[in-house]
Every structure is written in C-alpha cells, then in structure tokens.
From TrEMBL:
<dbReference type="InterPro" id="IPR036249">
    <property type="entry name" value="Thioredoxin-like_sf"/>
</dbReference>
<dbReference type="GO" id="GO:0005737">
    <property type="term" value="C:cytoplasm"/>
</dbReference>
<protein>
    <recommendedName>
        <fullName>Glutaredoxin domain-containing protein</fullName>
    </recommendedName>
</protein>
<keyword id="KW-0676">Redox-active center</keyword>
<dbReference type="InterPro" id="IPR014025">
    <property type="entry name" value="Glutaredoxin_subgr"/>
</dbReference>
<comment type="similarity">
    <text>Belongs to the glutaredoxin family. CC-type subfamily.</text>
</comment>
<dbReference type="InterPro" id="IPR011905">
    <property type="entry name" value="GlrX-like_pln_2"/>
</dbReference>
<feature type="domain" description="Glutaredoxin">
    <location>
        <begin position="13"/>
        <end position="75"/>
    </location>
</feature>
<dbReference type="InterPro" id="IPR002109">
    <property type="entry name" value="Glutaredoxin"/>
</dbReference>
<keyword id="KW-0963">Cytoplasm</keyword>
<dbReference type="Pfam" id="PF00462">
    <property type="entry name" value="Glutaredoxin"/>
</dbReference>
C-alpha cells in the first residue's frame, strides 16, 4: 500500500491500466487527446503488478483497471472519468493540478 501511495502522489495524473483492457485504452486516449501527459502503469507489464492491483481493490476500485488518480485523489474508473468529462468537470480538475493549460 505504501508503494501505491508513492506512485499516486508523485505525478498530477496517474492511470493504472492493462494493455489487454479496451476501456483502459479509451481512458488513456482521452487524456492524451486532452493534452495531458499522464503517468501510466501497465499492471500486466510491471513488476509487482498483481500486488498493486490488489492494493487498488482494497481502496474500493472495482474493476481494478482502468483507475485514475488526479492530484493524488482517486477519481475512479472509466465510468467516473467519462461522467466527469461529459458534465464538463474533468478539464477544470486537470487545470487545478497543472496537468493542462488550456
């Protein structure tokens, strides 16, 4: 859990993902299209990925990918991120943490 907290707090936007997950691809594409340079951890490729996935589950993340943190705070998965984007709350949130300068 300490390792997870360190990973989350080091960058303004952190995405936990798996290459095999189509929703992860969608969320990564959204952030890149918005001009964000997120830190992306591919849990199916990194050491201790299963361990990190279990820690995400303990935080209440279900499913465990994709999971997005903005400014060190858990935003949630694909549904939550898309809801924020559709109600025009995502971009102001990204601006507040310095992830974009639109």
């Amino acid at each position: 859990m300490d390792k997870l907290q360190k990973m989350i707090s080091e960058k303004s936007v952190v995405i936990f993902s798996k290459n095999s997950c189509c929703m992860s691809h969608t969320i990564k594409t959204l952030f890149l299209d918005l001009g964000v340079n997120p830190t992306i951890y591919e849990l199916d490729e990194i050491n201790r990925g299963k361990e990190i996935e279990q820690a995400l589950a303990q935080l209440g993340c279900s499913p465990t990918v994709p999971v997005v943190f903005i400014g060190g705070q858990l935003v949630g998965g694909a549904n939550q991120v898309m809801s924020l984007h559709l109600n025009r709350s995502l971009i102001p949130m990204l601006k507040r943490v310095g992830a974009i300068w639109l």
